[in-house]
Amino acid sequence: TYMKYELVIIVKADYTEEKVDAFLKKYETLINASYGQFLSAEKWGRRQILTEFQRKQHGGEGYYVMISFEGTKPLDKLTYSLKIDDEVIRHLISREVIPPKPIEKAS
């Protein structure tokens, strides 16, 4: 069963557009090579970080991006990559199950 995922990532607020684009390209390549199909990316821009601990650690702001992708494989490697990536302040992956299309009966 294909799953559709949305991945929200907070990176450091001082990133330039070029650095954000390079970051997104890195994860687009990883997703296409290991999990399924990269669908889209949205740059949400700089926003306040909500958790107090991370707000103190990173100056109160982060640059938010959202990646949409589809896949069938477990996300262990992707989750691990996000956890050890120094560029990532925080991430969240949510999923939606895409039901298989019904098989049409031949007449």
Provide a brief overview of the structure.
By secondary structure, this protein is of the alpha+beta class. Helix content is 32%, strand content 41%.
SSE blueprint:
Blueprint: E1 3-12, H1 17-34, E2 36-48, H2 52-58, E3 61-71, H3 76-84, E4 88-97
Antiparallel strand pairs: 1-3, 1-4, 2-3
Description of the molecule:
The structure is a single chain. With about 110 residues, the protein is of the alpha+beta class. It is built from three helices and four strands. Strands 2-3-1-4 form a four-stranded antiparallel beta sheet.
N-end to C-end Cα span: 27 Å
Largest sheet at a glance? 4 strands, antiparallel
Total strand segments: 4
Radius of gyration: 16 Å
| DSSP summary: helix tally | 3
Specify the overall morphology.
Answer: elongated
Q: Give the percentage of residues in beta strands.
A: 35-45%
Which segments are poorly predicted (pLDDT under 50) over 5 or more consecutive residues?
none
Structural class assignment: alpha+beta
Helical content band: 25-40%
